[in-house]
Design goal:
The complex is a heterodimer of chains A (374) and B (397). With 374 residues, chain A is of the alpha+beta class. Helices cover 17% and strands 43% of the residues of chain A. Chain A is elongated, with a radius of gyration of 25 Å. Chain B has 397 residues and is an alpha+beta fold. The longest helix of chain B is centred in the last third of the chain and has 21 residues.
């Protein structure tokens, strides 16, 4: 195999696949990138068996073929090469010669045979979305995923294609974020998957390359074809992301979204975020909560930790309901506020043991459970 | 500086007599008057002996085997787990009907301060404490000895003076006089060895021998602590009765087996029972715990332990049940029977509790646990148990 490639294109391609490596101890080949050269392009593939990414870059292929190389070190080298023209030449014994200007590297590779192939998809359920839209939706809910491995069902984002809309849901059992978008769902296209947190991270990172993203899935796995028509740094066709899905039943999230509205207040998102952020500066690991107090046209936020001190913030709001107070983990308030883009949000509360609910006019709901003050 | 004399001996020391045995006798009154003791049979030790058994030379802590030699007709009673702490709680609850200032020193012993109770005379004071002594007997069938004095030191010595069912009043101002004829070993801090050494080397046998010596001499004998020793010998003490207990850092329970056990399911059942017995006290303290540690001990006294933490602290039994088996397997690696198993909960949390969304089940469990705790606390013998506690009956009944 031999090809000539633009250094920056090569570096960009490697950057797309770099994060997905397996543990070196069990299968050393999983720390390698599979490089395949054909016609006028090379493809780069990495996998950790649960998740795989493949991208294609234009190149001047002189001799087709393939090899695998340690991806982290290769990416480090390519970034630093002195000349924009790079030549990669792989001998049949998998030894690779990388030249650029006056630099030459010889790198030991492993043959393609040991590299586990990425499964290709056939007749699964398929949907297409705008990349920017999916990126916004993921950002609106991803923070609420659980990182507690004992609740693995919650270690991901739930995609539910049903009844003419796509809903994305994430929850860690103490808060839940949901965003929905209307779209055409053909009868055979409805279904749901839990996309693992790691895949969600990779997908979010990749969703700025072009206009469309195609999603295919079945009960066990999902694949995303991310068009690269906006990317000018050598990527061609699409980036292919393959992932296993979290198998199991996602909890019935509808039941935790309050059906009735008690006290609804309209809030300036930025202002509330700043107030909660400042108040939370006095919180400690042991007393990690802020108290929200509502009274006539006034919202007060207080926080305290016994060994440090206390904070008090106040905001003028439009409110004429009864006085009430409720405490929350400040992160639970700040995360949705940070993820949203609208200037105004609605916040609904009932009493000190009932959940608080953030809403926007765009089918977004974030339910946060309070902290019971002792 | 001598303590300010109090007009009334309002500091009361309560010391239950042969507490574990008394708890057992309350359930088995037919054994009253017999030589009996609570303790592990086979390789265990005596943890409490009836006064009849003590008369035969049984003392605590004495290896059971030896006790059975000196007193062959000794009736051995196995430990009834959970019973003693429950009776203790009831006993101190009765004390708190007399005064809110109650210091629980241990399971069977504590101090009461009747100072702020507005008692007008020494007679009235005595009457009230005697009523308490009678109530503890009438309601719990626990005999207890009382010492009344102006401070903790003297009241404690007084309560132990005429056991069982003692009632000793040391009138204010007579503390030194009261202690003077007593053996030095009665003073706290002077153990059997020190007592023997003081008698042999310095001719000090009674408290009055000590108070009679000059300062220089006492300094030579006791070193830097001579002033404290002298103050103690004179019955001087100004420590207050403290109601605040330090918050528990952990909750634990252990059991030494009747005979070594090699049956895994049996040990697992015992460990689960400990979980069932510890969580109610954690709930009663308004705490939650996060980490469970299981310790096993082999017959040669080598031991191994293993612990694991939940993601969040809880006050329910259910989240810990699934940890019992893996922790026990991790701790019990040698293919040998066990002599002892213990369960310990740490990572105690009493802060504000984050509420959960999908926790309707937990809320149901919490309500159920609350009802069970109430039921079990109102009766002396546990009335409701988890099914896994019934698996197999063991030991003497």
């Amino acid at each position: 195999m031999k090809f000539k490639i633009n250094r920056d294109h090569f570096a960009n391609g490697l950057a797309q696949v770099l994060n997905v490596v397996g543990s070196k101890a069990t299968m050393p080949i999983l720390s390698n990138v599979l490089i395949e050269a054909e016609k006028d392009q090379i493809s780069l593939t990495t996998t950790n068996l649960d998740l795989g990414i493949r991208c294609k870059i234009k190149a001047e292929v002189k001799e087709t073929g393939s090899v695998t190389l340690p991806v982290k070190r290769l990416a480090g080298i390519v970034r630093e090469l002195p000349n924009v023209d790079v030549t990669l030449d792989a001998a049949p014994n998998h030894q690779v010669k990388l030249t650029s200007g006056g630099s030459t590297f010889r790198i030991m590779g492993i043959g393609k045979e040991e590299f586990p192939p990425l499964p290709e998809f056939g007749d699964e359920k398929a949907h297409a979305l705008e990349q920017s839209e999916l990126a916004t939706m993921l950002k609106s809910v991803a923070y609420a995923q659980s990182s507690d491995e004992t609740r693995y069902i919650l270690n991901g984002v739930y995609f539910n294609f049903k009844d003419g809309k796509l809903s994305l849901v994430a929850t860690d059992g103490r808060r839940l974020a949901l965003i929905a978008k209307e779209m055409e769902i053909p009868a055979d296209g409805s279904g749901a998957i839990i996309l693992p947190a790691k895949t969600v991270g990779e997908l979010t990172r990749l969703l700025d390359k072009g206009a469309k993203v195609k999603i295919n899935f079945n009960d066990r796995r999902a694949a995303f074809q991310i068009a690269t028509d906006k990317d000018t740094s050598g990527l061609i066709d699409h980036v292919y992301l393959y992932s296993k899905v979290v198998e199991g039943n996602y909890p019935n999230y509808q039941q935790v979204i309050p059906k009735e509205t008690h006290q609804r207040i309209k809030l300036e998102r930025e202002l509330l975020l700043q107030c909660v952020h400042r108040a939370a500066l006095v919180c400690s690991e042991k007393s990690n909560s802020v108290k929200i107090k509502l009274s006539s046209n006034l919202l007060e936020i207080t926080a305290q930790s016994p060994d440090f001190g206390e904070a008090h913030e106040s905001m003028a709001i439009g409110y004429s309901g009864p006085d009430l107070q409720v405490a929350f983990n400040p992160t639970f308030i700040m995360d949705p506020l940070r993820a949203l883009a609208k200037d105004e949000v609605f916040f609904e509360v009932k009493d000190e043991v009932s959940p608080g609910v953030f809403k926007t006019l765009e089918n977004f709901v974030c339910v946060i459970m309070p902290v019971r003050l002792s | 500086m001598p303590p300010v004399p109090r007009p009334l001996p309002t500091i009361v020391h309560l010391d239950a007599d042969a507490f574990f045995v008394s708890c057992e006798l309350a359930l088995k009154p037919e054994l009253r008057g017999t030589k009996c003791a609570v303790g592990g049979r086979e390789r265990g030790i005596i943890s409490s002996a009836s006064y009849e058994a003590r008369a035969c030379g049984v003392y605590t802590p004495m290896p059971t085997q030896r006790a059975l030699k000196v007193c062959p007709d000794l009736v051995m009673l196995p430990h009834t787990s959970g019973l003693y702490s429950k009776v203790s709680r009831q006993m101190f609850d009765l004390c708190e009907t007399l005064t809110p200032i109650v210091q629980r020193n241990s399971i069977d012993e504590g101090y009461l301060d009747l100072g702020p109770c507005g008692v007008a005379s020494a007679e009235e004071l005595e009457r009230r404490v005697r009523v308490l002594q009678r109530r503890i007997w009438d309601e719990l069938q626990i005999p207890a000895s009382f010492g009344l004095a102006t401070n903790k030191l003297v009241s404690q010595i007084a309560s132990k003076l005429r056991k069982p069912r003692g009632f000793v009043i040391v009138p204010p101002g007579t503390e030194e006089e009261f202690l003077a004829p007593l053996a030095l070993g009665k003073l706290p801090g002077i153990g059997a060895k020190t007592e023997a050494a003081l008698a042999a080397n310095h001719g000090l046998k009674l408290v009055r021998h000590l108070t009679a010596r000059g300062d220089n001499e006492l300094q030579a004998i006791f070193g830097d602590s001579w002033r404290d020793v002298l103050a103690t010998a004179r019955g001087q003490d100004d420590r207050p009765v403290e109601t605040e207990r330090d918050d528990a850092k952990s909750y634990s329970q252990q059991e030494t087996f009747f005979t070594d056990i090699s049956d895994f399911t049996e040990i697992e059942r015992i460990a689960k029972r400990m979980v069932d017995e510890l969580l109610p006290s954690i709930r009663a303290d308004g705490k939650r715990v996060r980490t469970m540690t299981i310790k096993v001990r082999y017959p040669d006294f080598t031991q191994e332990s293993h612990g694991r933490s939940l993601e969040t602290a809880t006050d329910l039994e259910a989240p810990f049940y699934p940890l019992v088996e893996p922790l026990l397997r991790a701790a019990w690696k040698k293919r040998r029977p066990l002599r002892l198993v213990s369960v310990r909960f740490s990572g105690v949390d009493d802060g504000a509790a984050q509420l959960e969304m999908f926790a309707q089940l937990d809320e149901k469990r919490r309500r159920l646990a609350g009802v069970l705790d109430k039921l079990n606390a109102s009766r002396r013998d546990a009335v409701v148990q988890h099914g896994h506690q019934l698996a197999k009956r063991r030991g003497v009944s």
